[in-house]
Amino acid sequence: MEIVKIRKLNEAFMKIEADQGVMRDISEHFTFFADNYKFMQRYKIGLWDGKIRLLNLLTGKIYVGLLPRVLEVCKSLNYKVVFDDVNDFTPNSITKSDLEDWVKTLNLPFNPRDYQFKSLHDMVNRKRMVVLSPTGSGKSLIIYMFIRWFLSEYPNEKLMLVVPNVHLVNQMYHDFEDYSSKNLWNVEKYCQKIYSGQDKSFESSIIITTWQSVYKLKPTKFAPFKAVISDECHLAKATSLIAILEKMKNAEYRFGTTGTLDDINLNELTLCGLFGDVKRNVTTKTLIENKHLSSFRIKYITLKYPDDECKDVCKMDYNDEINYILDHEKRNKFLKNLCKHLTGNTLILYTYVEKHGSVLSDILSDIEDKETFFIHGGVNPTLREEIRKDVESKDNCLIVASYGTFSTGVNIKNLHNVIFASPTKSKIRSLQSIGRGLRLGENKDGCILFDICDDFCVKRKSNYMVKHGNERLKIYYKENFDIEMVNVKFTGNK
Question: Which fold has domain 96-282?
Answer without folding.
Answer: Rossmann fold (3.40.50)
